[in-house]
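Quick question, first post here. What does this chain look like in 3D?
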Amino acid sequence: MIEVTDQIVLEDNEIEEQFIRAPGAGGQKVNKTSSAVQLRFFARKCRALPNAVFLRLKTLAGRRMAQNGDLIITASQFRTQEQNRHDAMDRLIALIRQAAVPPKKRRPTKPSRSAKAKRVDNKKQRGHTKKIRGRVSSSDY
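> Answer (accepted):
Ran it through. Tokens below.
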């Protein structure tokens, strides 16, 4: 059991880890060891995730979210499996915590009467400035 927030607790069977070979440069051992971790979280099937949190998680995850609702996180930053496992799990928990925070509701506002008057005055001033410039005739050259 992994406690993400007070309301969201993930079960162990909702997360699957798979060890893969890490991409990139390395020494002689790089082609023999599978130190990278691919963490698969079954977000669609998770009962602890409310639908609103799932939808926010889907937008936050972007292309890391598969078509069937699985969130796939790949961690290959470190050289050991254990460090990569912790990194992937930390990233998953941070993503879910971020999705658990509901966005603030937007309050529609209107400009004040003085702000409207100020804008109109500025427009009139600018128009007057352009008007007094006048046309350039060929004799002015």
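Helices lie at 51-61, 81-100, 113-133.
The chain has a mean pLDDT of 85.
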